[in-house]
Amino acid sequence: NAGVTQTPKFRVLKTGQSMTLLCAQDMNHEYMYWYRQDPGMGLRLIHYSVGEGTTAKGEVPDGYNVSRLKKQNFLLGLESAAPSQTSVYFCASSYGGQANYGYTFGSGTRLTVV
Amino acid sequence: GQNIDQPTEMTATEGAIVQINCTYQTSGFNGLFWYQQHAGEAPTFLSYNVLDGLEEKGRFSSFLSRSKGYSYLLLKELQMKDSASYLCAVRDGTNAGKSTFGDGTTLTVKP
After folding, report:
1. Is the separation of the CB atoms in A25 and A93 below 8 Å?
2. Which of A83, B21, B67, B105 lies 20 to 30 Å from A113 when distance is taken between CA atoms?
3. What are the pLDDT digits (tens) for B26-71?
């Protein structure tokens, strides 16, 4: 099994451009999450989904949108990129909210906004 | 909300034992996780505690005291490959399974 796959792995955007980050999991997990990680800081939750067709805001949702049209995919969109969105983005999934084995993470997308 | 504190950096010697502490203040609690993250890579799950006490898994052990809002990760027989960042994460009390992460402790293992 591939686990959690994120595309692209690297991207450079100009301020104001838009892009979509794709997260795909093949573990039949219900719950999916988008986090960002900045140097010296912990992972911060952007948006999450507890099932197909559902999304909710996390701690730092401004400037991002998400969609979960299919159970296996969770998309993160940046409509108008800003330099403050330069970060490493991690997607994570979990079988359920009570699971005792933690998240499975994708390998990350390193985004630079210039 | 959640507030999680852990030391920024630690250094230890190969073959030794190191304890990484984590304290938390939360409005809800449904488990504490430890993850390992090597530089440039994704975090990987190490351990989970939801009840008070010690959970042992090979060279790694994790302890939880809910009344004190305290956990530690104990690494025994340190190896060079254990040099990494260790993240403490607390899952909230909702059904969404959301976790709040500490800033991580960077452990350097020296020969």
Report:
1. yes
2. B105
3. 888 999 999 999 999 999 999 999 999 999 999 999 999 999 999 9
| Cβ–Cβ pairs < 8 A, chains A and B | 68
Which alpha helices (H) appear in chain B, and where do they start and end? none
Q: What is the mean pLDDT of residues B13-36?
A: 95
**Location of structure tokens 């686990």:** A3
Q: Cα(B90)–Cα(B95) distance, rounded to whole angstroms?
A: 14
Residue A100 near residue B31, CB atoms below 8 Å:
yes
Quick one: closest CA in A to B87, which residue? A42
Mean pLDDT of A30-49: 94
CA–CA distance, B54 with A59 (Å, rounded to integer): 31
- Name the amino acid, one letter, at A1: N
Closest-CA distance of chain A to residue B7, Å: 12
Whether residue B96 is predicted with pLDDT greater than 90 in this model: the reply is no
Interface of B with A in 5-34 (CB under 8 A): 8, 30-31, 33
Give SS3 for B13: strand
Q: Is A32 exposed, middle or buried (0-12, 13-18, 19+ CB in 10 A)?
A: buried
Q: What is the mean pLDDT of chain B?
A: 95
Contacting residues for A7 by C-beta, under 8 A, at least 6 apart:
A21, A22, A24, A109
Q: What are phi and psi of A96, to 5 degrees?
A: -165, 175
Q: How far apart are CA B97 and CA B83, in angstroms?
A: 29
| Phi and psi at residue B23, to the nearest 5° | -115, 145
